[in-house]
Amino acid sequence: MNVWEQYTPELVTDLYELTMAASYFQEGMIGEATFSLFIREYPPDRACFVLAGMDHLIQMISEMRFSEASVAYLASLGKFSSEFLDYLRGFNFTGSIRAMREGRIFFPHEPVLEVTAPIIEAQIIETLALNVIQLETILASKAARCVHAARGRGLVDFSLRRTQGVDAGVKAARASYLVGFLGTSNLLAGKIFGIPVFGTMAHSYVTSFEHEMDAFLAFARAFPENTVLLLDTYDTISGAEKAVQLAQMMAAQGRSLRGVRLDSGDMVHLSRRVRQIFREGGIPEVKIMVSGNLDEFRIQEMVDAGAEVDLFAVGTRMGVSADAPFCDIAYKMVEYAGRPVLKLSSGKKTWVGRKQVFRCFDNKGMMKEDLLALASESYPEAEPLLEVAMEKGRLVRPPDNLQSIRERFEGEWSRLPLSCRELKPSSHFPVRISHLLQSLDDRIAEERELEEVKGKKVSSSG
Amino acid sequence: MNVWEQYTPELVTDLYELTMAASYFQEGMIGEATFSLFIREYPPDRACFVLAGMDHLIQMISEMRFSEASVAYLASLGKFSSEFLDYLRGFNFTGSIRAMREGRIFFPHEPVLEVTAPIIEAQIIETLALNVIQLETILASKAARCVHAARGRGLVDFSLRRTQGVDAGVKAARASYLVGFLGTSNLLAGKIFGIPVFGTMAHSYVTSFEHEMDAFLAFARAFPENTVLLLDTYDTISGAEKAVQLAQMMAAQGRSLRGVRLDSGDMVHLSRRVRQIFREGGIPEVKIMVSGNLDEFRIQEMVDAGAEVDLFAVGTRMGVSADAPFCDIAYKMVEYAGRPVLKLSSGKKTWVGRKQVFRCFDNKGMMKEDLLALASESYPEAEPLLEVAMEKGRLVRPPDNLQSIRERFEGEWSRLPLSCRELKPSSHFPVRISHLLQSLDDRIAEERELEEVKGKKVSSSG
User: Which residues of chain B neighbour A56 with C-beta distances below 8 Å?
Assistant: First the structure.
C-alpha cells in the first residue's frame, strides 16, 4: 500500500469546509467572496518570512476536481444531499487569485494570497492553501537563516530521514534549494524538481568491512571521481590519517580524494585538526563537510570559532524548523458579495477588505517600509507585491522555474535591512497601514460591535 | 500537478544509501546484515514513546520495487553502472523483520524494528524506515499526552491545516486516533483509514451572513441533526445567547442543538459562563467544544481550573508535536555476515548485535522493568516485544486494524507506571542491559578501539 498515491488535493480538507459549502449551496449563496492568506505573528527569532509553495498551490487549485471515489466517500458520511454531491462532481475553480511570487520576503499581516471566487470555491481550498503555504514557507525561512549563518560556505539538505513525513522531506529539499542550498541528499526531490543530489557513505558502510581502510579503498574503487569518506566511525583523527594514506594511493593513479565528512565530536577542534593533518599530508584542498545536529546558530558558532568547514550538511533542525515548527497562518474571509466583513475574536486581528502590499525602497534600493493598503489604492512609487496569478479559473502565467525563484530570493535578501537578517533580529521591518484601510476596518468593527454584541440596528452602508 | 502521486517508496531515500549499495554490489558483498531501529533519548518532558507507523512501513518494504522511471532518474545521475541499475530493476526485499506492534509503549535504546537481510536490501530501506516510524511515533506519543490530560473528556484532531505537509496531516489523524481521539476533521484520513470525521463551521461562515443569527439558522436548516455553532465570531457571550434562542426554536420543531464551539478568549471563564447561560436557557446538555492553541499542558490547566468542556479540538501543537518536533531516531547496523559490529562515535551509543526487548511485570500486572538482551537469550517469565513480521520477504501476518491497535495501546498505557504518564514525568522507566549484551558490547568496542584507533592487530573471535 503506497499511502501517498491516495493523497488527492480535493480531500486535503477539513470536514467543515464541506458542511459550510453544503449550507451555502442549500441557501443559494453564490456571491463572490475574497479570502486573505497571511501570517499573524513572528515565531521566535524571526524578522521576515520567505514565501514558498505558492506555484504548487495555484496549480493544484486550477486542476482541482472531485473524483468519483472522493464523492462516494463523502456520500458515505450521510451528511450531504445528492444535489450537493452532484455539485461537487462538477466542481472546478472559476475564481481569481492574486499572489506574491515564491522567493519574496514578507512580513506579518501581509496577505501573500488573495482569492476572489464564488464563496463555496473560495472556502473549499482553505485547508489545502494553509497547509501548502505554511510548510514550505517556514522551511524556506529557516533555511535562509542557515545560508546567512554559513557566510558563503556551501550547504546541503540532509533532512529527509527525520522530517515530519515524506511530503515535508520533499518540501524541505525544495525550500532550502530556493534560498541557496547547493542540493539535497533526497532522491525523490532530486527526481521531481531536478535538484542536485549529494551523498556518499554511512557508518554502517564502514562497519560492514573488517577494517575501516578496506571500506575507504572499496569506496574509492566504486566512485574514483567522487570519493568522500566518513571519518568518525571509530575515531576522527585515525580516520583522517587513513584518508591521507588513501589520497596518496589515489595520487599514484592520477586520482584525488574529493572530500571527507565529520559527523560527531567537537567539530571546531576536529575540523582544524583534520585540516592540519591534510596540510601535513599534502592534501590541503580536500573538502571538509560537517554534519550532525546543525542549525543556523550552530553554524554561526562554528564559523565564528574558525572551524575549517567547506560544506555544512544540515538535517533535522532545518527540516522540521525545530525552533519554530509552525506559524500562526490564517485564511480569512475579508469581503462577501461586495460587503467588507471581519470577525472580532479577541487577540486575532484580521484586516478587512481586498488588499495590496506596497513595498517602498530608499535611494540605495534597500527596502524601507511596506504599506498594507486596500487593493483599490495606488502608490506609483512603490512596488505592489500581489500579482494576478489566475483570472476566472485560468492561469495567467506558467510556474516559475527554481532558478528564477533562487534569483528573486537573492535579490530580496540583499535589499532586506541587515537588522532583519540577523539570527537574533534587533528590529522588525516597518509595515504601515494605509489611512483608507484603517478607517474602513474601524468602521466595520464598530458596526459589528454595535449590531452583534450590543444588539443595535445599524444602517449598513457597505 | 499532484506532487504527492509522485512519492514512490523506492526513492524516499538519501543518495548515500544507493552509493553504498553500488559499492557493496561491486565488491560482491552479499552477506546478511542486521540493522536496529531505535530512539536514543527522550525529548523534553517525555518518559515513554508510543509506537506507530510500523504496519505501513512493513507493507511498503514488502512491496518495494524500482520503477523504470526511478531507474531512469538514477541512470541520469551518471554515478551508477548499468549492472547495478539492472540489479535495482530486479530488486525486491527478501529479508526478515522482527518488530514491535503498533500501540506498544517503548523506551530509549529499545529496538522497535530489527531488519535482517542481504546488506544492500537492509541498507536501502534506512531513510524510509526512519521517516515513517519517527513521524507517527512522535505524533502518537504527543497525542497520548493530550488524551491523558483530558481525563476522560473527548478529543478531536483539527491539525491538518498547520501540519508539516499533507503526509504529516494524515499521520496526525491516524496517530491521534490510535491513542484514543474520537476522530479528526481530516477528510483524507477519514477516507483512507475510516476514521470518524468531525467539523461544522468557521468564522467565515458566520461573517458571510449579514447577521450571526442568520448564519445559525441556515446551519440548522442544513444540518438539523448535527447543529454545532461557532460562538466567538463577534462575542462569545452574545453568541451563546443566540444559541439559546436557536435551541428554543429548534425545540418547537422537535429538534435539539447538538453543541457549540469556543475558539478564542479566556476559555475557562467563557466555558463556565456559556454553560451557565445554557442552564438558564434550559439546554444544559448542549456539548461545549473548545479549540485554539491547545496542547496537553493547556488541556490540563483547563481541566484543573474547572472549565466546562465536553470536547477538546486539538490542532497545531499536537499535529507538529510542537515541543518535540523530532527525536533522535537511528537505524544502525549491529551485525554483518555473522560478525557483531558497532561504531564508536562519541556520544551516540548503539548496542551491538541482534537483540530482543523483554518486558517484566509486577504481581499486579504493572510494567516493572524492561531488559534489553541479545535475541538469543531467553527469559520465560518476561514478554518479548519484538515479533516476527516478515520472513524471507514474506509477510507473516496482515496489518492490524485500527481498533486492535487502540486496544493494545489502552492496555499498555494502563500498565505503565503513573510516574511515566505524567506531563512532567518524575522518573524514567528502568531499562536494564543483559550481562551477555553488555559483555559482547564491551568486547567489540575494545577490539575496534585497539584495531582502528590504536592500530594494533587483534585476533577476531566474532
Answer: 1, 3
Question: Which residues are within 8 A (CB) of B174 and not within 5 positions of it... i.e. 6 or more apart?
Answer: B52, B136, B189, B193, B195, B402
Which of B13, B23, B119 is the best residue to mutate to test the A interface, defined by the most A CB atoms within 10 Å of its own CB?
B23
- Can you tell me the distance from the alpha carbon of B442 to that of B201, in angstroms, rounded to the nearest whole number? 61
Measured CA distances, B212 to A363, A393, A448, B234, B435 (Å): 49, 31, 10, 8, 70
Assign A108 to helix, strand or coil: coil
Summary mean pLDDT of chain B? 96
Q: What is the pLDDT of residue B290?
A: 98
- Which amino acid appears at position A133 of this protein? I
A205: CATH:
3.20.20.70
Of the pLDDT bands very low, low, confident and very high (cuts 50, 70, 90), residue B452 is confident
Q: Residue A101 in contact with residue A387, Cβ under 8 Å?
A: yes
Q: CA-to-CA distance for B44 and B115, rounded, in angstroms?
A: 29
Contact assessment for residue A52 and residue A140, using Cβ atoms and an 8 Å cutoff: yes
Residue type, A351: W
Mean pLDDT of A10-32: 97
Nearest to B14 by CA among B95, B67, B74: B74
* Rounded (10°) angle between helices B15-27 and B82-89: 110
Q: Which of A136, A238, A345, A461 would best serve as a mutation to test chain B binding (most B beta carbons within 10 A)? A: A345
Query: What was the pLDDT predicted at A461?
Result: 43
Same domain as A334, residue A401 = yes
Out of A186-195, A453-462, B359-368, pick the least confident.
Answer: A453-462
Considering A300, A319, A338, which residue would you say is the last residue of a domain? A319
For CA atoms A436, A440, A446, A450, the dihedral sign is positive
Number of structural domains in chain B: 2
Burial of B234 (0-12, 13-18, 19+ CB in 10 A): buried
ipTM score assigned to the predicted complex: 0.96
